[in-house]
Design brief:
SH3 type barrels, 4-stranded mixed sheet
């Protein structure tokens, strides 16, 4: 598949099995040594009306992608959920 990351960001990710809508791609998980895309990253449910980002990230492994169409990405299987790491507080001297 050839294309740009911006083209992937414009597509909605939908489950084939139950029709669940996961959202839009926000990032890619890459293997730097080979340059292969390992997974798509989608933001989860927003916190406090979306002002403070997402509670977790939805990770869809590349092997679970069935089809990439002109406006949607169809996936099989259950995606992984990974909590967003909180930033460490910096000490102010």
């Amino acid at each position: 598949m050839q294309g740009t990351f911006q083209e992937l960001r414009d597509k909605e990710v939908i489950s084939v099995s139950d029709g669940c809508r996961f959202g839009y791609v926000c990032d890619l998980d890459l293997e730097l040594a080979s340059g292969q895309v390992m997974a798509l990253v989608i933001p989860g449910k927003p916190r406090f009306f979306g002002l403070f980002g997402a509670k977790d990230l939805i990770i869809v492994p590349w092997k679970d992608i069935c089809r990439i169409g002109p406006d949607i990405i169809l996936v099989e299987g259950k995606p992984l959920r990974r909590p967003v790491k909180k930033r460490e507080k910096r000490r102010r001297w």
